[in-house]
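Hi P.,

Sorry for the delay on this. The queue was packed all week, but I finally got your sequence through. Input first:
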Amino acid sequence: MKAVRFERPGKVSLAELPDPQPPAGWARIRIKAAAICMTDFEVLRGTHEVKYPLTPGHEYCGVVDKVGSTSDEAWLGRRVVADNEITCLKCSFCRRGEWRCCAEYRQIGFGAPGGYSEYVVAPVHNLHPLADSTSFEQGALLEPLGVGIAATSIARARLGSTATILGVGPIGLNCLAALKASGARRILCLDKRANRLALAKSWGALETTDDPEHLKKLAKELHPEGTNVVIDATGHLDMIPLGISVTRFGGTFVLAAFYKNSALKFSPDSMQGPNVRMVGAGNNAGFIEPAALAVGDGVLSTEGMITHRFRLEDFARAFSDEQAGAPDYIKGEFIF
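Then the structure:
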């Protein structure tokens, strides 16, 4: 099969590899679409720890074409998306659903071969069917949509909550979609890129801006008691004091990005006094299924964020800094 390989930091290639064979309890998926995550750019740059060489890709979907056990043959030919967590399913963490704490934890696309390839194998218990109404391009976006649903759940957003999103790249946009579905109102969005702000506006943001000071004014005007839920999806440390400052008394500030192990000095009193609840949302498993169900029933749709489509042969362009930094770029996908 053809597969994109990160040979080492800074080195990407298209390789011919043996077709993977699913062991007992596993299924092979013929990939139909795989979305490109900015975390994979970090892997390529060597700033996200993995073992090289690696076939990345953790946002994908396709059709089951082979299974390792005859008892799983009902999955053959089914359109699916898959959870990426590979765990023991036996330890106390797994029994509580805290799969990423399992001592045997690996993740497809990081610790196991991923979806930037013609085939990927996954445990059968990780599979979720795609509704007939869900396109493959949308199916590949269910993993990041699950991230948005997880952040919204952790934030305890509910009907009538006010919300602010700092950064409306793919994760911020998925948070926006989930917040709207939860009944949040008067959602404000901050970002530097005009195309992202325009898309956020079309998805239901009340106001958008590229200016942090303007955001403060909007929050004061539209959320006069402060904002119930603030989500940072930028990964920039200077956004954290801003986010805390607009969070209401007893509100929730969610860290939905990665900060590259950077350190920040800020006053704990800015949280302690107003009882601000800060929570991380960087590692949450089990949210692909609700994403698939919501999209399948027409509750959510995020396909509109796709701005660029590639073939595997376009790997060099797809993973170039010039492409990712293009003014019109939001989300890319490999289409098979």
